[in-house]
Known about the structure:
eleven-stranded mixed sheet, 8 helices, alpha/beta, 28% helix, two-stranded antiparallel sheet
Amino acid sequence: MKKTALVIMAAGIGSRYGGGIKQMDSMGPGGEIMMDYSIYDAIKAGFNKVVFIIRHDLDKDFREIIGDRISQVVEVEYAYQELDDLPEGFSVPEGRTKPWGTGQALLAAKDAIHEPFAVINADDYYGPEGFRKLHDILMSEEDDAAQTGIQKISMAAFVLGNTLSDNGGVTRGILRINQEGNLVGINETKNIIRTEGGAAVMTDDGLLPLNKSNLVSMNMWGMHTSFLDLLEGGFKDFLGSLPEGKEKTAEYLLPTIVDDLIKKDRTRVHVEVSNDVWFGVTYQEDRKSVRASLQKLVDEGVYPCPLFG
């Protein structure tokens, strides 16, 4: 049986959430955390391994809260994202305190990933549809990048109007897609808010309206192990060309990496649309609505309670 892994990026500090570790906050009616629902949906879709990317200082609490419990229902491995986990010849710039973004996070898991995989954020609820579609693609296609020179990537895209917070601005990668259903580019857009008319970007000059039907990236990707080799080489290039003054803040981000590969004609990114409603804990104030949404899904029979009873 072909193995597929779910890779969960759970090393974030959660600064907008008040400094707490939001990935470990109880949200579900049975005490579940956000990751539980992604893992449940992934296993149901056919994924048979979970790789957690965390920080070393979270290890003990993480295993107690979720890791040891999940390891009873599916194979589990751990990887660790740290600020100073850099290629040979590079060091942490003076004054930098945060790791290097989602690209570095995924690269930290390179030795734990030996099969096609989906990668997601820890603090987002994605719904079942995206997991089913990505798993079907990963099961059906071969990783032939070594022969073709073209990296096969798939992604679950979400409708912008289904991904907004009621409590502040969010960052979304707005997608450009061609007639064949392949990604042409990603426009990483910050400070998107919900409005009476749908959505808008908050700018210094006022609100810039957006079409709420736009498709966006929520960092839900389907990839093959050959992508990790590209990621490794790209990280060295990224570190070697940091703009002056950006050493403390620059991040190696998956949407930007994929967008660059598209521009260089080194990847084909197939887009699958999920109509599920996203929700997450971007802000402390999101907790109430997230808990109500999860309770509603349980009441409707989408999920059992407890989730892993």
